[in-house]
Each structure stands twice: as structure tokens, then as C-alpha cells.
Amino acid sequence: MSTEAVTWAMDHAPMPRTEKGKPDTTARHVLQVLAEHASPTGTNACPSVLRMQYRSGYDRTTVQRALRRLEKAGLIVKDGTVDGRTRYKLALELRRPATDWSDLEREEDEFRAAAAERKRRSRSKGVTHAESVTVTDSEGVTVTDAESVTADVTDGTPSRHALKVRPSRTERRPNHQQPSDNQLLKDSSPAAASNEQQAAAAPVQTKSGSEKTDHHLKAFGAFWSNYPKKRDREAAKKAWIAAIERGVEPKHMVDAAQAYARERFGEDPKYTKFPAKWLDNGCYDDEPDPQPGPQLRAVSGGYQPYRNPTDQSVYDEDF
After folding, report:
1. What is the pLDDT along the chain (319 residues), one digit of tens a residue?
2. CA distance 11 to 133
3. Whole-angstrom distance, CA of residue 62 vs CA of residue 69
4. Number of helices and strands (H, E) in the chain?
């Protein structure tokens, strides 16, 4: 390998160009392969096409076309054959113009300037520029992704970037929701003021809906412990709350559940109603079944009335 020829191919040889004037990097790579097999004077470069394919990674057709373009540019010249391979001579006297380096530097500067401009525009999209900024009644201001921000919350000193202040609820309201002049006059009338005073004097509810529900569920525990059949607790809980919302007193339902438990004591449990059905059907208002009375015993001779042995009249009738 000739160091002089390789250095010339990599640094000093003119850059081959395509028909459109673009750098022909394919031909330059093939030229470097030729330089690796040339003498220090650039002669006797005769690698086979197969060797150039192996070194460059290009296919046969690409290598042959690149050789023709190098010949056309005057960078190589055919100098006979060796064992059936074409021998080339490199034009080491040709030098790359110095303007190539200055052109690359100018392109690099233009690229950096364009990149900086794109970055500046991207940042400016998130910042609203204004001549001055005045912030009042603000507890804190946070600004992110900004190069420099100067804001005075008292005297409105001009700043470089304007801070975005969230509009009030009235300002965010669409125009069609803005109150009209007639509505403002109506709201400021004596009748409206009287209504406001009455609303202010109205009693305030001291117990929220959730507190009432908790209170009702505490009473439900007493109902559940006394009811004779404990099935479907969640369904029974919903039916319990629904009954209370209908105006039924919790104590009334608990007492009725105790009475129903006494009534069903010793009876077949499969005929005992589920608690949810019992509540939904309003069975807490049912009258309890009457207790069975004394059984009459049949005797021979027909029905005999009861006689008090101390009653003398009874004996008088018999005798």
C-alpha cells in the first residue's frame, strides 16, 4: 500500500462530481481503493474488479461505472494490462482547489444559523411579546422555558416577555352569556334586593345528606339484628333508605321487625319474607296475626256449658 497515493486520494484529489454537480462519493471511494494498490508515484494500480467490489462494497456494475467517471474526470488513466486486469495510473499532479474548504465552512455556518433561527422561532411561539406587564393581586408567578423575564408587580415596568395572566370567570364567559343592561337593572331592583334578604334569612341546613344517610344506616343495624331472616343485606339497605325517604320512621320499622320475629318464631323459615321485600311492600304497617285461643274439647253427649260450682242457681236448675 502506498501512503502517498492514499493520502492524495483522500485529501488532495479533486472531488469528482455527478452530472447534477453533486459530490460523487461512489467514484471517490473507488479511487481510494485504486490508490491502496498503486505505487508511491501513482502507477501500477491494477486491482481486479472483484477486489474493488470486496473493498468498496459495491456491485460489479457500480464499480465499472465509477471507473468510467474517474477516467472522464481525468483522475485516472489506463496504462496497459497485467494478467488480464486493467492497469491504471493516478493523476497525482491534480490538486483539490482551496475553495472547496472555504465552501464547506460557509455551508456549515449557514446550517448553524438556520438551526439557531428555527430554535428561536420555536421558543417564541410559547411566549407572548408585549410592551409592558402589570400583575396585581397575585400570590405567585411561574415562568418556564424562557430565556429572560423581567416583571414588576407594582409599577408595570416594561419587560422583555409578557406573562400570560388567566382571565377571570366573567372574561372567559362567551359574549352570549354576558348579562344585558336590562338584566342588571332587574337584579338591582328593590324586589331583587328583598329576595336576597329573604334568602339570607332562610334557615341553614345543619345536617348534610351524607350525615343523614349515616344516621339512617346506624338505625338499619338495629333493624337487621332483629329481623328473623338475614338475606341480601345490600338490597335490604337500599329498601331501608327508600322507606325512610318515603317518610317512615326508623323506630317504627325496628319495632315491626321485632313483632314479625316473634310471629315467625318456631315457624318454617322458608315462608319468612326476605327483608328487602318486607320493606318494599310496607309490611311494617301490617297488623300482627292474632295469637291462637284455647282449643275446645269435644265430649260425649253434645256441648255442655261451663258451670261454676259456686253458682247455686245451676244446682237449682238440675235438681
Report:
1. 778 889 998 988 999 999 888 999 999 999 999 999 999 999 999 999 999 999 999 999 999 999 999 999 999 999 999 999 999 999 999 999 988 888 888 999 999 999 999 999 988 887 655 555 555 554 554 545 544 444 444 444 444 444 454 555 544 545 445 455 555 445 555 555 455 455 444 443 444 555 555 666 778 888 898 999 888 899 999 998 999 999 999 999 999 999 989 988 888 888 899 999 989 998 988 877 666 555 545 444 444 544 555 544 444 444 3
2. 58
3. 11
4. 13, 2
Maximum C-alpha span of the chain: 174
pTM, two decimals, is: 0.38
Cell digits of residue 105: 465552512
Q: Cell 332562610 belongs to which residue? A: 202
Q: 139-171 as b/e, with b when 16 or more CB fall inside 10 Å?
A: eeeeeeeeeeeebeeeeeeebebbbeeeeeeee
Please give the sequence-ordered ranges of beta strands (E in DSSP) within the chain, or none if there are none: 76-82, 85-90
Degrees, nearest 5: CA angle 98-101-102: 90
CA distances from 252 to 155, 218, 297 (A): 71, 15, 40
Q: Is 7 helix (H, G, I), strand (E, B) or coil?
A: helix
* Grid cell for residue 10: 483522500
Q: Specify the DSSP class assigned to residue 45.
A: B
Strand partners, 78: 88
* DSSP classification of residue 212: H
Of 18, 82, 27, residue with least CA distance to 56: 27
CB 274 within 8 A of CB 230: no
- Map residue 304 onto helix, strand or coil: coil
Cα–Cα distance, 62 to 59 (Å, whole number): 5
Q: Is the dihedral of CA 248, 285, 265, 228 positive or negative?
A: negative
Q: State how far the Cα of 133 lies from the Cα of 61, in Å rounded to an integer.
A: 69
